[in-house]
Input
Amino acid sequence: MKRARRGRQGFILVLRASFEVTGYYLARTVQADFAAVVTRVVDALGKEGFGVLTDIDIAATMKAKLGVEFRAYRILGACNPFMAHKALSIEDKIGVMLPCNVIVQQAGEYVEVAAVDPAASIGRVGNPALEEAAAAVRAALLRVVETF
Output
């Protein structure tokens, strides 16, 4: 099914979209322009109350540090202050799992957007009081990934 959506960067034509939920991440693959997808993801994160604290360009880092070519790959470190405050108030060491990472990577002619599944990682903490907060973060990140 073809869908076109107009964003700030113009049109993103979605010719193919697939969705995947695994044991530790949520992902969607689309056929679209890489830079437009990054912009769209950052906007979607903002609508969910997340700020992007870090933006690591893996391709540029690999080129600068190792002299090797690497596909377009960005790691966005996203944090929702309200949700982070709630989680840190329950479990003070939860900060080792912050911020939530969202990746955008070129996958051949497609672009993949994937986000950490906080519900999967929170289960390892062993504090049932965090489950509600993790579910809320998961739902927000799922909406971001489902933007396409």
Summary: Residues 1-16 have pLDDT under 50 and may be disordered. Strands lie at 3-7, 10-14, 17-21, 25-30, 51-57, 73-79, 100-107, 110-116. Residues 26 and 126 are 22 Å apart (CA to CA). Residues 131-145 form the longest helix (15 residues).
